[in-house]
Amino acid sequence: MSRSAVHQQSAGGVRGRLRAAYRTRQDRGDRWGSADLTGWWRDAELLRDLGPALAGLYDESPTVVVGPVSRGAMIGALTAAALGVGFVEARKEIAQATDSDRWVCRTTGPDYRDRNLVFGFRRGLLRSGDRVLMVDDWADTGATARTVRQLVEDCGAHFIGAACIVDGLLDPRLRHDLPVRALLDVRTL
Ligand SMILES: O=P(O)(O)OC[C@H]1O[C@H](OP(=O)(O)OP(=O)(O)O)[C@H](O)[C@@H]1O
Ligand SMILES: Nc1ncnc2[nH]cnc12
């Protein structure tokens, strides 16, 4: 059985527990409400099991994990620890320390809140031979995942794909094209 097939079996329990701990916060008259993910991080067993479950979404072994701040960085670090590889934050504030401190930066297309955000990290954190797994909690427009993919490719590294907790992709083609894999489909929450 492949690595992802083995992991997918054990991820079955994680999926059920994620659904049970998820809440939509909604006032009367509010059509959509907002997603409350805090229960996922508050549950010690879920927190322990999330990294291995996300790590198992792809068979290809990464050499490094990249996670966009803030929630992508938190669960990205859990996933990197489960895989035994290092972790790179994709930061929203570019904090170049000196003129010689080279960063790679890219601006997203409109994200789920219609923002164009600048993401980046120190150029030296990725090598051209790296195989990179991106981790995030949620994919919606895919703008964040697309931008991280560009940053990885700017470094000459290989983008394996995005491993997310929730697939809420508005454009289903991105699932294959980026690619994006997730533990939960938004319609099952
Ligand atoms: O597919 P997209 O439309 O790009 O949306 C996905 C991004 O949106 C959320 O981040 P958010 O900006 O809410 O940041 P946070 O993790 O700091 O809360 C989420 O963590 C993803 O990074
Ligand atoms: N609808 C949503 N709820 C919470 N986080 C998100 N990130 C992107 N879309 C989101």
From TrEMBL:
Residues 58-169 form the Phosphoribosyltransferase domain. Transmembrane segments: none annotated. Its EC number is 2.4.2.7. Keywords: Glycosyltransferase, Purine salvage, Transferase. GO terms for biological process: purine ribonucleoside salvage. Signal peptide: none annotated. This is Adenine phosphoribosyltransferase. InterPro entries: PRTase-like, PRTase_dom, Pur/Pyrimidine_PRTase. It is an enzyme of class 2 (transferase). The lineage of its organism: Bacteria, Bacillati, Actinomycetota, Actinomycetes, Propionibacteriales. GO terms for molecular function: adenine phosphoribosyltransferase activity. PANTHER family: HYPOXANTHINE/GUANINE PHOSPHORIBOSYLTRANSFERASE, XANTHINE PHOSPHORIBOSYLTRANSFERASE. It comes from Kribbella italica. It comes from the Bacteria.
